[in-house]
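ok so for the tutorial part 2 we go from a plain amino acid sequence to predicted structure tokens. step 1 is just haveing the sequence, like this:
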Amino acid sequence: MLRAVSAGEGPASSAPASSAPASSAPASSAPAGPAGGPIVPPQAGPGGSGLPAEPAQPHRRPVVTELRLSAFGHHRSAAFPLGPVTLFAGPSGSGKSQALAAYESLAGLGSGATLEEAFPDPRARIPDLAVPDAQRRRGFRLGCTVDGPAGPVRLDLAVQAEPTVRIVGERLTQDGQVLLATALRDPGRRSVQASWLTGGAIGVTRAPLPDDRLGTALLPLRVAGSTAGQRQVLAAAEQVVVALRSVFPCDPRPDRMRAAVPPGEGRLLGDCTNLADVLRRTRHECGTRHALLAAAARTGCAGSVTGLDVRAAAAGGPVTAVLDRGPARPATELARLGAGELRFLALALVLLTGPGVLAMDPAAELLSAQQALTVLADGFDRGLDRRQSAELLRLALLSGSRGHIRLVAAVGEETAATARRLPGVAMVDLRA
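step 2 — the prediction. this is what the tokens look like for a chain of 432 residues:
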């Protein structure tokens, strides 16, 4: 039976994906400091006689390498490793969409969203069989591991969804050491008691934090960085925040993509309704990427395609995108394309571009070359034929190999069967 998240409990530990019930163990096996706070480790002594193991090569850019869900919808004590291209597959009801929704919610919290903004319907994430405690509280747990220049960092959250939505426990750990821990001490107050590693003479700093926001995202505003411990906390927190902010949820809506659009900033929306305006921008500002997109269109669109162009009825007027069919044939407006062709073009554009062309707010403190964009796409292959899906997988692998763009998507069985034969694709097969 699934157990509710009680107020004051810490986040669950990671466990392999299985049907085992959620664990109530803390996020780290390291003992907690006073009031469950971070530990100030003793000064390291001389090493032993054995040679140290060769450390794993860290990622050059902060990326989420694992997603953990415990008592979250269909998932119970599940841990999903994430690579440059990760596809979730399984029958209806197996939890593909829930996993992507959890990732998107974490990304929202990392970008500064409130808990209610990140989880518009938190009760829908509570398992059906979750039993409330004596105070009629129920909730769920989720977390992730972010790898990057600072090394692997774990973030785990315990969220109370009933009777009120609040974060009742958060833990940020690295190498078994707790850097930040929060706990709900007084249910009557809208705050949690937080403690984070300081080092030096103080050891640990304690202060209240809001119970509706991610404490990790608030640390850069609270920690001065004047001690080695504070600098470790800042490096870990900033790495997590950068990775979570570098996420673009994408679900192209062909029914909204056919009309001409007014010229704007040329930043693609999540539903891709302003595709024509973005093509206008890429055509003038990035000829190489525009040419790659045109080459992809030759594979994913019916008929002869020699290029992509845009037209405007008047200067400053609405913009219409067209497929160039060659000098002897009239161009075809995107409004006349099939739904699958429109979805294909939009997804191909996302996989070939970057944060500067997408309607998102990446971390401004790092150059875009030091960040990796993660595209989230539920129903990635919806409405696409086998040829279109295969071409998008090729583009995703091409972009993923360069380290700039990663893909986490839910796909149908036909695309999953193709992807299983492709080196470089990480498959997560779920069961209903």
